[in-house]
Specification:
Length: 147
């Protein structure tokens, strides 16, 4: 498992969650964030006839949302704590030097449903990307691995 590391002179914080997992979450969150308001709540037409617009709308039981929630739920407790702390780090709640405090706060305030909490943060994918960059990582390598 590859661990996210910071690029600084002092020992970087260690994370339980892998860069690959964070990048998967970023990718799914961006798909979820791209959803638009529902314009036809109960379409009777064939999806091909309406340009398959429903896939871009935020319907209940959205498969992208379900996949993202399941992915987060299936992470270990330690990975979910790191994930929340990474969102807070990327949001600017602390800098990299305050990582241990952020992580401790995330551990103390574990949500009953981490996925529901995180999906309620509109810019989650941007915050995670920013946090990765603070650790000297990005999802560019992960995207290249998938090609």
């Amino acid at each position: 498992m590859r661990t996210i590391r910071a690029s600084s002179a002092k020992a970087p914080p260690e994370l339980s969650i892998s860069t690959k997992d964070v990048c998967c979450i970023i990718s799914m969150a961006r798909q979820f964030d791209a959803k638009d308001e529902v314009t036809e709540p109960d379409p009777d037409s064939n999806p091909t006839d309406d340009g398959e617009i429903a896939i871009l709308e935020d319907h209940r039981n959205d498969p992208v949302e379900l996949e993202l929630k399941t992915f987060i739920h299936d992470l270990s407790v330690e990975d979910r704590i790191d994930l929340v702390a990474l969102v807070w780090l990327g949001r600017g709640d602390a800098d990299l030097d305050g990582w241990s405090e952020l992580r401790s706060e995330a551990e103390r305030n574990q949500a009953k449903s981490t996925s529901r909490y995180l999906l309620g943060i509109p810019l989650m994918s941007d915050y995670l990307s920013e946090a990765l960059s603070l650790f000297g990582e990005s999802c560019d390598d992960e995207a290249a691995d998938r090609l």
